[in-house]
Amino acid sequence: MGNIDINKKLLDEIDKLELSERLIAWKQAVKDEPWKIYADRERYTVQSWKMTEGEDIEIRRAKLLRHVLENIEITILDFDTIAGRSTPGVIGACTSLDVCGDYIPDIWRDGEVNMTLNADARISREDLQLLRESAALFRGKTAPDMTMKAWSAVYGDWGRGVTDAKVKDPSLDAGIFGNVTSVMQWEKVITKGLNSFISEAQNHIDEFIISQDSDISKLYFWQSSIIVLEAAIIFSNRYAQLAEDMAANEKSPVRKAELAEIARICRHVPANPARSFHEALQAMSIIATCKLLEHPMHNNPHWGRGDQYLYPFFIKDIESGAATLEKAAELLSELLGRWGTQAFVTGETQRESHQVNFGINNVLLGGANKKGEDASNELSYLFLHMVGKLRLSSPTVGIRWNRNTPGWLMRKAIMTNLETKGGIPLFQNDENMIRHYMDDGIPYEEACEWCGLGCVYPCLPTRAEHYGAEGIAGYNWAAILHMTLHNGKAITGKQLGLETGDPRGFKTFNELYNALKTQHKYVIERIFRLAAIAREVQPAYLRLPFISTIGLEASMELGRDVLLPHPDYAMFGISDRAIIDVADSLVALKKLVFEDMTLTLDEMIDALESNFEGTRGEEIRRMCLNAPKFGNDADEADLMAKELSEYSASVIRSYDNSPFKNYMIAREGLAWHYFGGLGAGALPNGHKALEPLYDGAASPMRGADTNGPTAVIRSVLKAGFNDSYAHVLNQKFSAAMLQSPESVDKLVSFTNTFFKNGGTHIQYNITDREELLEAKEKPQEHKDLIVRIGGFSAYFVQLSHEIQNDVINRSEHML
User: In this structure, how many other beta carbons lie within 10 angstroms of the beta carbon of residue 783?
Assistant: First the structure.
């Protein structure tokens, strides 16, 4: 079906917009202000936890958030016209010690605290002491701590061992729980207001009493919902009072009026339905801040389909004259910028797998609506335009491509990509995604509303997403191959796999291949059992009543926290990573050892164990690198990737996850290839020990895709990957190539062709090698340079040197 009617004149007006002076001042403050970690939240979590000892866990967690929202320091900065910040600073972070325990090693040393691999943050001595007190109070008592104890009771140190060896991720202290990284019920929040949620909860309580129901956990949930919802309204009113107090002392008439407007709006939303675009964005800001303060480590307030639920407010204000386009753009940019610069503090493993300083929040634009029409609109265009002007590493912006996606949106997307350089926006195949969901029994009306979780992983607003929530988000095929080549021993030297035999004794390729499959099945089935154990343990030690109430509509009806997954509403997924690395490795082994017999298996194993050292080792490595590689339209590698993908999916899908839906597969990006590389020694594809693996999930070996971009997408299409909802493909093009409208149209055509032939995902780094090399040498001069890593973008100068080199050495294509 066709597209909705579009005001082309409005698109032209959007193209003329620039950043306002207010936004320019804010961007400068982001550059100038030091990064700080604040302990104010921990002060009030400790107070609350001590005051509520002995109460039900759901009620305790609700009262904890209420105590925080009623007392935490709040601020309205000079350039704010929307209230709602988790800390008083321009760049600030708070911590999740009450949720994850003692997960920040740096708080036990004086000085700055590492937020990620290469980002320190200041913290006062008083705040550091508060963090230490909180860590000591909660250490050993949190859901991650108790889950690890349960894992140890079943498997000894195996659960910790496979995490340490990078065989599976994330670690439990990553703090991922059901729905914490998913989209909120934004449309319901802004069209009905929190008072309607409170009424719902009270009605359920009344019905519970009348019906003489005995399931007391439901009563506690509804009571907790009311506690946190009322707390959110109080929190908004605190901002209103602050704005009024500031206005009373403000000398500038313009700023005085702005503060009065903030106060007026915060008195109305989010308690009541929004009446304007400004009020809708303000309601979202308060809700996102409350979500963050319930569990700060996962502070990604995803927009979901922001161009859909916000569109009626936007277009009404523009057409009625209630707001100018310039004002609407400034408001949207303010919230985009604030969410895109919300810092967080991670544990060790997330530093390796993410390497980002800002929470990843996601907005998907366009795509099909419930009538089957493409729903791209003028607000989709405005999102792209302002993202291009802001030039931030976050949010992750995606285009939901379908055959009716209009050319004006695709061209704007490529032009935005050219402005941001670092893969913003990415492109996902809307048709494939909806089909996958429908194949898994999800009705079209739900499936068409899919949106992004983090970088590219898909989620549904109507279902609680548990991806990563039990310490299981992905596993490492390269680490499993390493174990196969070392008779079950992982990179750490521990015997984590089966003893499938000394690889030197394998007489045929099939013997080796079958050993790899045996090792894989053993590891994945144990990993799934770890997840099932975690699912049973975690709810006893943690609940998230705000995220449950605002995040999932079914929670209110069921009277059930999202940490207690319901079979009808819980979704589980996993990412089986490094398939291309292993496919290339198997092709090299098969060709060099078993077919051409250029090498003996002993020679290959010796070279791997020495990390290709010495003259002979380097000679063997060159043979491995010269073997057929995925991404060159070479059948040997492409069909091996297809076979591995299908085998992996068959094992995952055959696992009985009753009473829940079976695991779905989505192969995302992050900076996982850095993390995954730490789990593998030298491999037959020429990979040296501990180096980053291939980026993304469908990307070729960096520098090995020598036949051009068309050969790459032919390889991807040939491999199929039809068993996965998404598989990240990165491509790098020279910025010099895209200097004319014709060249932009070529890249649009290239993208359309890929998707029309079944491609699922593609994203583009549009930058020049020389600029990247200069940024590495002179980081202070290139602080704003954005690059695409895996499924997300980051500032180049904040990345590890290994990932910087990885991006530099990727093939730079021309069309």
Answer: 12
Q: Residue 695 corresponds to which tokens in the numbers above?
A: 């980026």
Is residue 466 within 8 Å of residue 565, measured between CB atoms?
A: yes
Q: In whole angstroms, what is the distance from residue 384 CA to residue 426 CA?
A: 11
CA distance 340 to 333: 10
Question: In this predicted model, what pLDDT tens digit does every residue of 464-491 receive, in sequence order?
Answer: 999 999 999 999 999 999 999 999 999 9
The pLDDT score that the predictor gives to residue 116 is: 64
Residue 75 has a CB neighbour count (10 Å cut-off) of 15
Residues near 792 by beta carbon (within 8 Å), at least 6 away in sequence: 356, 360, 393, 394, 396, 454, 455, 669, 670
The Cβ of residue 408 has, within 10 Å, a number of other Cβ atoms equal to: 15
* Encoded amino acid at 726, one letter: A
Helices 325-340, 378-390: axis angle to 10 degrees equals 60
Token pair 């605290």 is at which residue?
Answer: 113
Count the residues in the chain: 815
Which tokens sit at 391?
A: 């030039």
Residues whose CB is less than 8 angstroms from the CB of residue 174 and which lie 6 or more positions away in sequence, other chains included: 100, 297, 346, 347, 349, 350, 468, 471
**In the structure, how many helices (H) and strands (E) does the chain have?**
34, 20
pLDDT digits (tens, 9 = 90+) for 725-746: 999 999 989 888 888 899 999 9
Q: What is the pLDDT of residue 451?
A: 94
Residue numbers in the chain where pLDDT is lower than 50: 1
Residue tagged 């265009």 (tokens): 381
d(CA 628, CA 595) in angstroms, rounded, equals 13
> Which residue from 531, 624, 618, 522 is spatially nearest to 581, judged by alpha carbons?
624
SS3 62: helix
Residues whose CB falls within 8 Å of the CB of residue 25, separated by 6 or more in sequence, listed in order:
78, 79
Give the separation between CA 691 and CA 546, rounded to whole angstroms: 41
Residue that has been written with the tokens 């003028």 in this structure: 378
Domain coordinates of the chain in residue numbers?
A: 37-137
Q: Which two tokens stand for residue 728?
A: 């990240």
